[in-house]
């Protein structure tokens, strides 16, 4: 349904070029949920915005249903009816002066859909706000956090999209309602055949909702594959470090060095300055510092961009 091929996005910063996305191949199949995980600053949100057509790539292509995305206004308008965004902060993404009805009706009005009231009621009902008419005249401050996030999801569903891109969809919610929103996303996948790319730093969320996981570091996918295989037997040292912070992990891995700087991509493996394997003096460390790794392809098979796992390289 949605695919990034050799995608790169660069920004100018005080005379330097920041490679926020640096050669990404990623696909989301029909009815599939893919989790894009990584720490803050790794390029997840920039990649999501590029997939939505909000940022034009420096190179590479975004394709929907096999056709490359073009950036003419008419084409983008049609594309955004099929691929919708769900933001992490419903209080920030909802206009406090708009009622729930107005918030959900905005998309259908822009796209000129008929039977507006029926469309809004159906979207709210599918998002779990029933009876929908009871919420029409309410304002965001009158709703709970979970209800506000359901309104945001309803606003996306009102256009009958095929793909949702959800950026940290439960990060701002209490633990008690996170499970309800995740269950809603799974139900929408099962009932409507929706595909979804879920951007998150929470590996527990990825475990509960995703069919596949893609781990991103410094603008590039460093490991991907079926969720159970990646999270039960991670091959890349970065994935192992991310998983080590979970409560059930036997030992925590503390990464050395500074968080990645997209204006200064290291030579060799881009993770080597912080890698616990290199820090431990592994014999392969010199190769990690000097030898470039290939960009991973968009595939459902397990793969890792690491000199320690050459058999898994794309």
Automatic annotation (TrEMBL):
Q: Per the database record, which ranges form the ABC transporter domain? A: 2-243
Q: Which GO terms describe its molecular function?
A: ATP binding
Recorded hits in InterPro entries, A to Z, give: AAA+_ATPase, ABC_transp_ATP-bind, ABC_transporter-like_ATP-bd, ABC_transporter-like_CS, Oligopep_ABC_C, P-loop_NTPase
rRNA processing listed as a keyword? no
Pfam families noted in UniProt: ABC_tran (PF00005), oligo_HPY (PF08352)
Keywords for this entry?
A: ATP-binding, Nucleotide-binding, Transport
Q: Which family does it belong to?
A: Belongs to the ABC transporter superfamily.
* Name by which UniProt lists this protein: ABC transporter ATP-binding protein
